Structure formats: C-alpha cells, structure tokens
Amino acid sequence: MIGGGEGAYIGGIHRFAARLDNQYDLVAGAFDVNAERGHAFAAANYIAPDRSYDSYQAMAAGEAGRPDGVDVIAICTPNFTHYPIAKAFLEAGIDVICEKPLTATLGEAIALNDLAEKTGRFVGVTYTYSGYPMIQEARAMVARGDLGEIRVVQVEYPLEWMATGIELEGNAQAAWRTDPKKNGRGGSIGDIGTHAYHLAGYVTGLKAESIAADLATFVPGRALDDNAHVMIRYQGGARGLLWSSQVAIGQSNGLRLRVFGAKGSLVWSQEHPNELTFTPLFGAPATIKRGREDLTEATHARVRTPPGHPEGYIEAFANLYSGFAEAIRARAAGRQPGAAAEGIPTAYDGLKGVAFVDAVVDCHEAGALAWTTPKFA
Amino acid sequence: MIGGGEGAYIGGIHRFAARLDNQYDLVAGAFDVNAERGHAFAAANYIAPDRSYDSYQAMAAGEAGRPDGVDVIAICTPNFTHYPIAKAFLEAGIDVICEKPLTATLGEAIALNDLAEKTGRFVGVTYTYSGYPMIQEARAMVARGDLGEIRVVQVEYPLEWMATGIELEGNAQAAWRTDPKKNGRGGSIGDIGTHAYHLAGYVTGLKAESIAADLATFVPGRALDDNAHVMIRYQGGARGLLWSSQVAIGQSNGLRLRVFGAKGSLVWSQEHPNELTFTPLFGAPATIKRGREDLTEATHARVRTPPGHPEGYIEAFANLYSGFAEAIRARAAGRQPGAAAEGIPTAYDGLKGVAFVDAVVDCHEAGALAWTTPKFA
Amino acid sequence: MIGGGEGAYIGGIHRFAARLDNQYDLVAGAFDVNAERGHAFAAANYIAPDRSYDSYQAMAAGEAGRPDGVDVIAICTPNFTHYPIAKAFLEAGIDVICEKPLTATLGEAIALNDLAEKTGRFVGVTYTYSGYPMIQEARAMVARGDLGEIRVVQVEYPLEWMATGIELEGNAQAAWRTDPKKNGRGGSIGDIGTHAYHLAGYVTGLKAESIAADLATFVPGRALDDNAHVMIRYQGGARGLLWSSQVAIGQSNGLRLRVFGAKGSLVWSQEHPNELTFTPLFGAPATIKRGREDLTEATHARVRTPPGHPEGYIEAFANLYSGFAEAIRARAAGRQPGAAAEGIPTAYDGLKGVAFVDAVVDCHEAGALAWTTPKFA
Amino acid sequence: MIGGGEGAYIGGIHRFAARLDNQYDLVAGAFDVNAERGHAFAAANYIAPDRSYDSYQAMAAGEAGRPDGVDVIAICTPNFTHYPIAKAFLEAGIDVICEKPLTATLGEAIALNDLAEKTGRFVGVTYTYSGYPMIQEARAMVARGDLGEIRVVQVEYPLEWMATGIELEGNAQAAWRTDPKKNGRGGSIGDIGTHAYHLAGYVTGLKAESIAADLATFVPGRALDDNAHVMIRYQGGARGLLWSSQVAIGQSNGLRLRVFGAKGSLVWSQEHPNELTFTPLFGAPATIKRGREDLTEATHARVRTPPGHPEGYIEAFANLYSGFAEAIRARAAGRQPGAAAEGIPTAYDGLKGVAFVDAVVDCHEAGALAWTTPKFA
C-alpha cells in the first residue's frame, strides 16, 4: 500500500476491503510521505520492518527484487501522485489498484492506460459504488432488456462536508481536494462527479456523445468548482442529467441513480444500497432485495448475507477487491475470470472518467456554452 | 366555469376546491364546446337552465348583464383557449381564475397580463402546488433566512402517464397536450415544467437570469418534447436544475423541490406533502410537519387538520381558491388581503411561466446551445 | 349538526366532509351547549336563525315538525351524550351519523343498536379510517384470497398529544377524554383503540374470540388508561396484537395496520394513506397506489384523483359521508346501495367497538389476567 | 471454531466478523460433525492439518496442550450442543464466544453461567444486533436521560423465511430450529424473540418483572411456535410489547425497536441501521446518523466510516468480536476494558434470554393465562 497511513481515511477502507474476503495479506508499504510516521504506522500494523519503505520508489525496487514480493499494490494518495506511482510499479512488474480519479490530468490518464496495455499488467480503479451487488443487478436488468431502450438517466452525488471553507481550517482531506495542483481541474466534478458518471455508464452501458456543463464555486476563496450541473447526450439518443455537489447541506453521501427506459425504470440510492425499485410500464413499483435467490450470478458473487441483513460500503469495496483478485488470478492461470470480476473497473474506465472531467471543465471555461464531446467514452 | 364538463379531469378538481371552504357557489357555466353535452352536465350539477350557456361568449354577455351575475369564473379548457376566454370575461368586468399555463403563446400572455392591469380585475392562476401549506412554510423559511443565501435549487416533475403514445389511442387529455396548436410550444416543459419552475421561484424568491435546455421526444410520432433538462442561472448567482418528463415510468406525479443554502437545506415532495425536511448546517435532518402550532401565519391559513391527519392535492387546490376569494374580497372592501392570499399566483406569475417555456424552446431550437434569458422573470 | 361549534375540532371535519361531494346541505343545528354561542356560530355559517336551536331536544322536535326538516343529523359531542341525542332523533324519525365510540357504556350501545333496528332508521358511525380507498382495497384483497388464510394481524394507533397532563392545563379536548363520566371506561383504548380494532376487523373480516389486555396510565393524575396493549385471539385461529397510546412522543396520528396470511401480506399506514404494500409469498414487495385503474369498484367509488395526487383524511371522511348518503338514498328508493356504501360502519359496528372496550377494561380490572370474550363480535 | 463448516450460514459470518478488524486469526477448528467434511473445509481455509480436529473434545484437549493454543473459540452449532462444547473449553482454560440462545435449556444456562463465574473465563454471546453503533447510541441516550423515564417499549422481530414448511423439504437450518430436541422449547421466541428481548433490555436498561404470552404455530406439522405475542411489565412500571414471527411474509429480517419516554422517543430499524429517529417532547423528529462526530465514545468505537457510507450486519458482528477481544485483552492485562467492550453481552445476558424463553413457554403452556416472572432478569 502506498499512502493510507495514520490520519488517512481511504487507506483504512482499502485495508478493511482487502481483509474481508481473505484474499489479500498486507505485507509491505510506503504509508506516508513522512517516512518516520510511515514506519511507525507499519509497525503498528504488523508489517515487517524491512518491508516498510521510505518511498514508493524504494518500495517498487525493493519488492520487485524479492522472490516473495507483493503481487499488487494499492494507491491511496492524492490524485496528482497516482500517475508516477502507478508507473513505477507497473514498470517494476507489479499490478496496481488505484483510487479514482485515475490521474490528475488527461495526459497522465492516457499515458497510464497505454502503459497498462503495453505492460499487460492489471490496473484496477476503485469506483467503489460499482461494487454494490444491486448495482450489478441493475446492470444485468438493463442488459437483458427489462427496461427496454433507455431514455433518461438521472444521476446525482451531493455531499455536505465541504459546505464551508474547512480547507482553510486545517482539514487536510479538503485541502488537497481544493488545490488544483494536487487534485486536477475538476472540484466536485472530479472528486465525486466521476463516481456518478461511471455508475451511470456502468449500469446502462451507454457512452456519452456530448455534455454541457455549468460549474459553480459557492464557498468563498475556493479555487475549484464545488457544484456541477451537467446535461448529457448519450450515443443513441438517451439523455442524462448529472449533479455533483460538495455543498449540499443534509446530504451525507447521497449518490443516487435513476434510469428510465421504454419498458420500465429503476431507482437505487447508495445510502440504502440493499434494495432497488423496479417499476414496469404502468405497473406497481417492486422492491428488489439484495440476497434474493433469483438474482443474477454476478450479483450473487457479490453477496455475503441473506436479504434483510444489510451490507454496506465496506462490502462494496471488498467486492471490488475480490473482483480484482479474481482477475489477477485468472490471468495468472490463463483462464477466463469468473462472475466476481465481471465488469470491474480498469484503466480504460479510469481514463474515461478523467476525459469526462476534462470535457466538463473545457465546456465551462469556454466563453460560450456548447455541447462538448469527451475525448474518450 | 368554462369547460370542465363530462369527462374532463381538472374541472372536477376546481369544483372540489371551490366547495371545500364554502367560499364559492357554482351557479353558471359553459361546460362543453358541445352545448348539448354542456347543458346536460349543468342540469346534473344543479345549475339553473338559464345560466347554462352555449358558449363562453354567451356566458360573458349573459352574466355581465345580470344583477346577480357571477363574481369570478374558472377557465378549465385547453391552453389555446385561455386567452380569448379570459379576455372576454375581463372585458365584461368579471374576475378570472385560469388554469396554467396562462396562455399558449407569449404574445397572448403579455396581452392578458396587460389587460389584467388595465382593467384592474383579478386574474388568478392555478399553480396548484404552491397551495400546499408546507410550500408556504418553505417560502417563509427561506425568506427569514433559515437557509442562508440560496446556492442550489433542484426541482423536478416527472410523470409516467404519457410513456407510450396514448394520444394516438384515443386519450383526449394526451391528444391536446401533444398538439402544438392547442398546447403551445412546450410539451412536458409547458405542461408540468411550468409548475416546477413556478414552485422553485415561489419558494426561493429567486428570478432566472438565463437558462440552457435540452429537450427530447422519446415517444415516436409525438410532436412536442416529452422530456426536458434545463440548467438555470438565477440572478445573484444561485444555480438551478429542472427536469420535467412525461415518460418517467414509476413516477405518478413526482414533483419534488430541494433547496440548498449556505446555512441549511429543505426537501419537499408533492406525493408526501404533509412534511418537509429541514437540515441546518452540519446538523441533524428534522421533519417539520404540517399542522404544528409553531408554523407561520400564512401556513396556518392553509391548514385544516392537525399533524398526522394528511391533507392533499384537493386541499392545496382549495387553498388557492380561498386565497383568490380573499384577494377578491379584500379588493372589494378596499383592505389589505389577509394571510390566506399571501403569495397567490396571479397574471404576472402566469406570464413568467410562459416566458420560461418560450426561452427553453428558443434555446433548444437554436442551432447551437447558448445561455438564454427569459423575457420576463 | 349537534355540537361541533366554535372551538370544536371534529365538527369542522364533518362539515368539510359533508360539503366535498355536494351531497349534503348544512341547514340546521344545535351547535353548542351554550345556546348563545351556538347561535353566533350558526349565523356565521349561513344557518337560518329559526333552524339554530337551543338544544338537541328542541332541534329534534323542530325539525321533525317541518316539511323541509333535515334528513340526517351528525352528532359531534362528547361520548356520554351520544346515546340520548341519537335516541331523540331516531325517535323523531331522523337518521343519525354519530361519532365513535358509539356510546359511553355498553348498555347504551346495546340500546341504541336495538333502537336502530326497531325504528329502521339509519345510524352511521364515523370510523373515519375505514373511509380510506386503500383500506377498501385491502379489504377486497383479503376477501378475494390474495393473502390466503389470515394468520397474524398487527394494528397500532399511537398518538403524542396527551403525553403530558394537558387536561389539567385547560385543554378541553383532553379534559373530557380523561373524565370517565364523559368519556366512558376506556381511555386510549376507547378513544383510538376502537378505531384500530374496527380497522383490523374491517379489513380482515375476522371476529375476536377473546382478548387479554394490559392497560397503563403514565401521566400522573390521569384517571383513565393512556396506553393499552392487547393480545387478540380471533375466531378461526388468527392472532392479533393491538397497541393504542396517547403518550407516544413522535407519533402524530400513527394508525398502522399489517396483515399476514399464508399467501401474502399487506401493510398500510394512515399517515401515508395513498398506497399499500403487498408482498406475495417469497415475492418482492409491491407498492399499490390509490387511483390505479385496476383496483376494485368499491375502491374506485372512494377515489377522486389519479395516483400521485394525494388524498387524505378529509377525503376519507367524505367517503363515509357519501357512503352514508348512498345508503340513505338507496333505502328511500327501495334499491340496493351502490359500491360507495359497501361496508360502511353502522350501529352494530359501533356496538362491537364498545363491547371491545368493555372487555379490555374488564380484563384489566380483574384480579388476574385471563382471556376475556367481548360480548359482541 | 466449532461447527460453521461447509453449508453453514452463521459460521461464515463469524469469520467475516473476526477478520474485519484484524484482531483474530483463525488457526484451529472442528468444523463439522462429519470429521472428513470438517477436514476438507479446514484445508480450504488455510488451517494447518494438525489443528483441524475430529471433534470438539479432541480440539479442547489438543489446543489446551499446545503452547500456541487458541485463546478463544467460537461455537456455531445448533442450540442443544452449546452447553457441552462451552463446558469442555472453559474447563480446558479456553475462552468462549457462543451463539445465542446460550443453551437449549434453562438448567444448562444456569450451569454455564456458574461455570463462567467459577472458572473466571470469558463467555461472550453473539446478540448480534447489540453490536450496531446506533444501538449503542440509543443506549447512551436513554442512560443520560434524553428520553426521560421510559414508559413504553415496542420491539418486534418478524421474518418470512419459514412461512411454509421448508423444514420438511430439506432445509437443514429450518429443520433443527423446529425440532424441540435440538432447538429447545421456544420456536420463534427462542430463535429471534431472544434477540428482540435482549435488544430492548440493552437499550433501555429495564428488567422484566413479568410477562404474558400467546404462542401460535401456523405452519401445519410444525412442533414449535412460529409466532409469539408477549406483553411485558418491566420493573418500575414501564410496559413492553414483543412480537416474534417466522411466518411474516414480506419481512426479511425486520427487527425494530421503539422506545417512548416522558421526554422523548427513539425508533431504530435493523434493516436501515445507520440512523435512528429521536423525537423530543412535542418537537420535530430528528434523524441521527451513524458516524457523526457528536456521538458518544462507545458509539465511535463501533464506527469505521463517516455518515452516508452504510455499515451493516457484518460490521455489527465485527463490533461484538472486537469488543470481546478488548475484554479478553483487558483481563489479561489487568486493566479496565475500553469503550469497545462497553455493554458486550456475556454469560449472564445469555442466561436471561433463556429464562425469558422459559417463562414465555411456561406461560403459554399453563392452562390459564397469567402474568409470569422470568427466573433471571
């Protein structure tokens, strides 16, 4: 693991996720830019001293040189460091699990995607919310035509935690997210809009044709957008609306997806992830519960408990980790990956996300509003 | 009453609304373009034969000439007839309650608003949803600063009943709504988008500076939009997103409003109208219930039952009617209207709605997307 | 109308309900035990002075003697006066609509039911909640076997408004409800438990075989129960649980019914009355919405607006009034009543409710707990 | 681990829970009464062959004799085996984590509780639902007086999975649960009623004074109750109502708790465990979210993610495991246990649960209904 040490949030989540299904052992890391703090953290987490590294460069070299070197690393650092770290490990022959957005710039994303192809190594991207079982079920429902041709996609991801200028009050998480150098060009649209955009595409299979966006910055002194409205035209004619916000008071982690087709609709909300509502044309809304026996195989592969025993965010994250493990093992064994790896987000998904953010910011920064085409879709 | 006879939907609602608070007697009408059917309907509704008219023109003349002529009429006909009917009665010295949208064209709306000013007569517009008590409370909360400066407004009005081409299968309600000559230029945006737009402005007090819109028609053969996405920039910097749809399977009458300010947010949904959720900055969401004693006077004036005894759509409609009655009586008495009439929608509100639809369709029909300014806001 | 004047709550509801469907005119009344206040109220409500009476006795005599005398009266007074008032009007040949509980004592209830039979006059009882359309639908679903044999009935009716001793602080509504002489033997169980008991029987068609009850009084100084727990054994083997409470903080008017059978279940909540949830055996819960075209005829007869346009408490009350009107007209015309009158609560339903309260209080007051059989079921 | 091998449900949950917080390593087990199957399971789960035992007796002896023997074992077997297994390990000096109900008979529960005291070993009982963070918060709210004196406790635990006679169709989980010899005297009341009873006592701190119960068996041929209604009188005057059911169609895992006091109320539902609703006297209901910074220390100790990132059943289970680990370590270190161990269920809690079931069945089997006092409270 790179980053994710003391005081980090997402690093802990990666560790829960890696442990849950007993598919990973955490054996090495460069946990902190401050090497001393990193070593202290390693010691507290049962890491052998010789595998707690001063830097990611040292770790890439060290682990590549060991017969028992790590199979895969997790990058849990601010966005601007994703690319150099991933590059170092891929070139050292080590697979990579990377936080989203894949990189801070589109150029880096293109380069990283190329490198993944060239090296043949695995690059998984933690679009967390695609790990939820009912999202897998929603995807299957669309794919098998339960909704008919898709007409309208509504996706939103509002948050409240940055509703005031906490980046000026010592909140490190908010500080790098509002710094264009560390975060990239997109504020809310890069941080959470990318999740929403991926989720909509993941479930519907639709690709964006063009977008039109209106970014706003409400908190005084903030350098990046903290609210984004985006109209989307998908290839084939479906229309989408995407809202991301870091200033939406009352919204803890309000990712929500609604898909309307010619024959039915579905609604899913991240804060109540264990069910989705499906309504057939002129029929009664039905609540489909995670864990039912009649769900698809790829859904079952992401379920641990029966209906009514809620699973949550950590389990969704663990589903990604287990999917990544399955993909890595299948490649090693020269076999097709199983259901657990179906649809897992990889480098190209990460590239699409960065291209979306780039198109949104381009659209907004242009003098006049215009339909803008993401470079990768 | 003009229109609203046998087989009509909204006419019956107007009658429920007029009766509920015992402020109106229905004593005359031209209930149907087919005079014979109109007279039959009148007879069944206890209307004296000499006050069941063959046409609105006959009624305007007849009632204007009676010492006990009607004080006010209700226009419950398709959009393209609103203007000539309203004109006839205003010129006959009779007040008017008119369905939305106020008229089918912007020119008519301007003319009608001018006529209302010139004649000094009352023109009420049935933006039904502004009659709900908790909408009044929401408006008061914004006005007194509970939410701080408004940043983001999300309003949506999705419906499912026109998800297929029912206008081709004999559904009269759908037929005129999809006929540009009878309905005006805006499909979903004119029929229900106007409600959503009014509601957002009513609660927040914000005026639109410019809009950018993407209209779509999903049902084959339909002449007008059945789905509209609109980004709004309000004067002063707030941003809005508006969605209207007639093809949103699973949505019965899904009008919903969310307002986010610097100090708090509120959420209200028309299908559960007896409560709203208010969340203060970093606080716990609270459910505010219609009927509580600590709500504002204008809310109390729209409440008939204590919390937990649900009121609904008919009561909201009745609140408009009682507000209109209060406005008419106050004018007659030369006094200020009371709380029941606070904020009731009148001709200028209707004009703003038509101007909004016009701007949306202009924006969409222009070759290139551009921020477009409604002519009245 | 008897009672229901200035300051009364339920009288106003009766008037809304009577007006809504245009089936009644309010033309006479004895609105207050204080005759002067009653006359003032009558004048403000457009009642002719000669039909505003000093007392119910005067009204019974006066109206019976007029050729245009009232067809039916509504009793909106405290419980202990129901019986003498109803008796006076029935004996004067005038039909009666009476608030629940039917009477304050079981003896009175028996006598009133006998009198209704003997005189052949109509006695309707305002078990308000049975007027909701989705309750009618629930009843039809059980009757046609959608749930299979009924196993378990859970009904509850919690309120918060009497959570403190407001009867000692000048609240007149609470004062008579906590006075055994005016209210009868049952506190919460008489006031609201009767509603819950009726609703459970109305929907399921089940009759109680025996009950076991635990009453409690939590507010210091209160003379009657303010919380009741009742276990019910229904004839045929189904089991029920009933909870009524006047001290349940957070519960505005929380009547809720859940019915579980061998083939399915249904859930309905009064505060969101426009839908019910039906779950078939091992199937997905479905939301059935009021106003759908595929509901039963008796449900349609109680619906005014399409799905998504909420109806509420006043509409439910109006459904009872319209059902009573249909029953009265059908009797006058010598025909079978239509769907609007199907299942409306009459004197015997009122008697059953009083018998239930009596059994509950008997059970509680007995030295030892024992299964107790209501005298009428 | 004893039991919990191939095909078992709860064993897998124990393993997820033990792994999540990195406090346990699974190193030995007797996973199956069929030793061969047990060994196969052990091999697949990375257990050294010499620590995969043929029987629990062999494992108690083997592990007690090793310097690196296990610290604690988890008992995941049917109820009737809990006592002999626990006894074997406690007498071998090994701590025990045991599924609920603690034992199949009251005599065994008394003996086991005595043995725990006598040996000074740790016995944790997996009353899973008490591991949820918001249950901890609810407990703290009651303890610090937010609700005032408790008046009414409503707890229910309905399930649907045994709504038909699946025990006759090869469902092993249902088979032992409906066999009095393997399960004990209580059907639904023993299996899930014990969870509900513990939860109510855990949150409120109340102890039962007496109970009155009505058990029913709805599925033909079933030997134990599958539905239980229980009225509870708590010491000090509060009243409770408990419902458990295995035949409640539509209910996946519907544990729900509502507590009403003189100053406020709270509502919590297991299927949406990340929030609770608190309503102060005559105030607005507030949604308190797991993860907020202003919650109590014992709640924080059970939280891994911020508000809006749902945690669920596995995390609740892991909280028990981490609490048990804290208790065991604190005892070894001779220090007070930290917040993670506050309130964790131990042998006496298990004994109380068995005593409750015993009282319920005694009450039901007595010829006449009577208030019955559990032997331990």
From TrEMBL, chains A, B, C, D:
Alphabetized InterPro entries for the sequence: Gfo/Idh/MocA-like_OxRdtase_N, Gfo/Idh/MocA_oxidoreduct, GFO_IDH_MocA-like_dom, NAD(P)-bd_dom_sf
Any one GO molecular-function label of the UniProt entry: nucleotide binding
Domain (Gfo/Idh/MocA-like oxidoreductase N-terminal): residue spans on this chain: 22-127
Pfam family, one: GFO_IDH_MocA_C3
Superkingdom in the source lineage: Bacteria
Every GFO/IDH/MocA-like oxidoreductase domain range: 135-267
Protein name (record): Gfo/Idh/MocA family oxidoreductase
Species this protein is from: Amaricoccus solimangrovi
